Amino acid sequence: MKLEVVRPGFTTTVQDLGRPGHAALGVGRSGAADRASFRLANRLVGNPADAAALEVTLGGLVLRASAVTTVAVTGALCPVSPGGMNAPMTLWPGDELVLGTASHGLRCYVAVRGGIDVTPVLGSRSTDTLGKLGPPPLAAGMLLPVGTPGAFPVADLAPRAALPAAPVLRVTPGPRRDWFTSPDDLLSTVYTVSPDSDRVGIRLTGPPLSRAREGELPSEACVPGSVQVPPSGRPILFHADSPTTGGYPVIAVVEEDDLDVAAQLRLGQTVSFRPAS
């Protein structure tokens, strides 16, 4: 069984739950940016939670089935034909799954029963856009192999709560909070998502955070969720394909569960931060 890529959309990659455990080699975790939506898509088609699926940025994807299969689409709100979102649907040979442009949120997830069966790299089928590991982004004409189906789907519908218009992300302080003259400004500022954001980092525009120290740090370990502040004073929220080290001070770290919310932030959307407890 294969799925033919008729149209790849704006950017579509293969993702699973990533390749943790390789930070010492300089290899980031990668994996699905919105893990909750990714897991839901797999659950709807009866896959294991970590089966490889497609992450579709802003929609626009068209796939053609070569055999009978079951698919599901979750995440950002977009028109889906046939069927709809957050429910399993059957594709017959020659049927096309068509995703329109997302109207709310940024990333959709397309799971197919059996999972996308590309060759794993370091134990994962994920595309790492920074490290250039895993399969390349989808292109028209590609044939995606599908694995052997497992259990039949057990859920008919799994509605999700609406995406927040102006998310507030929970953070824990530090470890370089002391590098800033007024670190609490991070919590009182409403930021706007910059156009140069991607899977590596979400760049934010707003009043710059002023430094209390001169110079720069030697590179030190960073994790997805780190809020790093370069000399411009404008924060960068490290995300799914972020590097394992960074040389700018980290003023705060976003709670892991809130990274799913951050993954759906669009260009021009506002976001703010609050203490985790």
What are the salient characteristics of this protein?
277 residues, 3 helices, 2 domains, Cyclophilin, mainly beta, seven-stranded mixed barrel
Describe the fold and architecture.
It is a single chain. The protein is mainly beta. The chain has 2 domains: 2-145, no CATH class; 168-275, Cyclophilin (Beta Barrel), CATH 2.40.100.10. 6% of the residues lie in helices and 31% in strands. The chain is built from 3 helices and 19 strands. The protein has helices at residues 35-44, 185-188, 259-262; strands spanning 2-8, 11-15, 53-57, 61-65, 69-77, 80-81, 89-91, 96-99, 104-112, 143-145, 168-173, 191-193, 201-205, 220-221, 226-228, 236-238, 245-246, 250-254, 270-275. The strands form 4 sheets. The protein has a 7-stranded mixed beta barrel with strand order 11-18-15-16-13-12-19. It has a 5-stranded antiparallel sheet with strand order 6-8-4-1-10, with no helix packed on it. The longest helix is centred in the N-terminal third of the chain and has 10 residues, at 35-44. Keywords: ATP-binding, Hydrolase, Nucleotide-binding. InterPro entries: CT_A_B, Cyclophilin-like_dom_sf, PxpC. Its EC number is 3.5.1.54. It is an enzyme of class 3 (hydrolase). This is Allophanate hydrolase 2 subunit 2 (EC).
